[in-house]
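Progress note, sequence design subtask.
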């Protein structure tokens, strides 16, 4: 199991995956808006999305678990 975490505080701008989706290492799973910039957040391993722990416009802190991949 791999947890994709927020690298810094920000707001969820867009979510590209849902539970059950297959993802590849390096594939964009969501977009974080931080410091007036959009930052792609990518999968860190191949697998299946187990859960998405945020929704669009959520405020997140650095280290928050955003997506879990099995």
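Output:
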């Amino acid at each position: 199991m791999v947890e994709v975490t927020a690298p810094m505080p920000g707001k969820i701008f867009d979510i590209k995956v849902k539970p059950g989706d297959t993802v590849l290492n390096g594939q964009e799973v969501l977009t974080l808006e931080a410091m007036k910039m959009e930052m792609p957040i990518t999968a860190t391993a191949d697998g299946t999305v187990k859960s998405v722990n945020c929704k669009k416009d959520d405020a997140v802190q650095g280290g928050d678990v955003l997506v879990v991949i099995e």
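The domain at 2-69 is CATH 2.40.50.100 (OB fold (Dihydrolipoamide Acetyltransferase, E2P)). Work on this subtask will continue into the next period as scheduled.
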